[in-house]
Amino acid sequence: MNAFDAVLLGVVLLLVLVVVGAVLVGVRTMRRLSAAPRPEDPAYIAEKDRQEQSLAALRTAADEVNSTIDVAKSAASAARAEAAAAKAEAKAARAEARRVLDDARAEADTVLERAHKQAEADAEQLRTAARRSGEREVAVLAATTREQAAEVERRAARMDERERLHTEEVERLADRERQLTAASAALAARESALAEREQAVAEAEEQRRRELERVAGLTADAARAELIEVIETQAKREAALLVRDIESDARNTAEQRARHIVVDAIQRVASEQTAESVVSVLHLPGDEMKGRIIGREGRNIRAFESVTGVNLIIDDTPEAVLLSCFDPVRREVGRLTLEKLVLDGRIHPHRIEEVYDLARQEVEQLCHRAAEDALVEVGITEIHPELVSLLGRLRYRTSYGQNVLKHLVETAHIAGIMAAELRLDVPTIKRSAFLHDIGKALTHEVEGSHAIIGADLARKYGESEDVVHAIEAHHNEVPPQTIEAVLTQASDACSGGRPGARRESLEAYVKRLERIEEIAAGKLGVEKVFAMQAGREIRVMVKPDDVDDIGAAVLARDVAKQIEEELTYPGQIRVTVVRESRVTEIAR
């Protein structure tokens, strides 16, 4: 009996009890009715009606209970039938499960057998691979052993050769020792002979001196004094000539040495050239983007210029806008902001402020990274963080087409090479040259010369007085007093003044060369003109028949004077007039 049958039996028993109770109540009621008073009594009649109604209700309840019992019996029968069906299904399920289990066991046996076969095959492959690997390792070990044996043989041969050479060297030393012994004996004999000869010479010299004193009528001391006076006069004249020659050679050698140092420093350092511009060009994906940049009634462009401080120029140039600003860092932040806005597509005042903050942080990171790279390239490790930030701003600063940060790196390298050639303090001179233009980072914000501004910054952030003086004196605002200042000036001139370093200097350099040649070529008697050494020397070839030696000197002076009056140039220009005379004769 399952739980459902038990519940159903309990319900049936409950219903039977209810029916029995109802029957007992009805019997009790009937007895009361038989023993009741007369029907004529109204109370009796009312009580009788009430009892009859109760009896009718009990009969109705009994009928309902009977019908419920019938329903419960039918439900019990159905439940028994379902239980039988469930038992049959359970039996079938057990049979199916038993069959599936048998199939699974058979399939598991098959899989296990295949796995055993696959494992055996894999093991065979592994054994084969291990055998091959072992053979290769054996071959490698054999080759290594052969190489080691050959190396041992070579070493043994070298040792034998070294022993042979050592034996020969010992024999040579023994021969040399014998030769030295013989030479010592010969030298002793020669020394004794020389001593005897010196004694004879001394006696002859004394006799000759006495004879000279008798003939000259002078004593040896008087003759010595007279001779010394003559030799002293001659020595003074020769010394004066020698000093003059030494000074001339030293001057020529110093100029040549300085020229070699400068040329070597310039040749060993070469940097890129950057075109200077006060505007940046941003290319757009289409001309319709210009309207979105301007915004409704120009609100976007006004917000952009107000936030970034950069003037935005939108003209008829197809698919491009211009950004103009005197501060290169601010211009780069504005360009990056506009580029991000164009890529994003959402352009409105609030978005402009958000993107501007991101662009400013990105440019600051780029500047800081550029300054660190420059410091690493130059070899400077200890420097104030504020100076690092200011150096990073020079990444976007140019001077006559030359990037200022790269100019500082190039100047430091040139100064370091010069200092190494002159055996000076290389780190201090490189530091002075690297920081000499630091004031250009604040020329847009602070009034005054960038040399003085840079010196104040260096002094503020703890740089040494030698470095500060080199910075403030590199443009002669302050007279240079130290070798660091002089070398900083020289390296700055080498980096900025070499041809091609600055766009404006290159144009002026070409024009200066042309004008120098024109000035010299315009004189009478000039045949050819050559401008040499980057315009620092000009050689004028004249016709020997038209210009004599005095005329050549006058021509050189006139050309030099006209160059001084008409041209502006660094350093000095040497004018050399070459007059060549050729005489030809024929021997018959």
What percentage of residues falls in helices of 4 or more residues?
A: over 70%
The overall average pLDDT, rounded, is: 79
**What ranges have pLDDT less than 50 throughout 5 or more consecutive residues?**
270-276
Largest sheet: 3 strands, antiparallel
Indicate the proportion of strand residues.
Answer: 5-15%
Query: H/E order of the elements?
Result: HHHEHHEEHHHEEHHHHHHEEHE
- Distance N to C terminus: 160 Å
Physical arrangement of strands within the biggest beta sheet: 1-3-2
| Shape by Cα distribution | elongated
DSSP helical segment count:
15
Structural class: mainly alpha
Computed over alpha carbons, the radius of gyration is 60 Å
Number of strands: 8
What features would you describe in this structure?
This protein is mainly alpha-helical and 588 residues long. Among the domains are: 79-195; 403-496, Hypothetical protein af1432, CATH 1.10.3210; 510-587, 2-Layer Sandwich (Alpha-Beta Plaits). The chain is built from 15 helices and eight strands. It has helices at residues 3-34, 42-216, 220-268, 288-294, 299-308, 328-344, 349-378, 385-393, 404-422, 426-434, 450-460, 465-472, 483-497, 503-521, 549-566; strands at residues 279-283, 311-313, 320-324, 398-399, 402-403, 526-532, 537-542, 574-579. The strands form three sheets. Strands 1-3-2 form a three-stranded antiparallel beta sheet, covered by helices on one side. It is elongated. The protein starts with a helix and ends in a 9-residue tail after the last strand. The model is unreliable at 270-276 (pLDDT under 50).
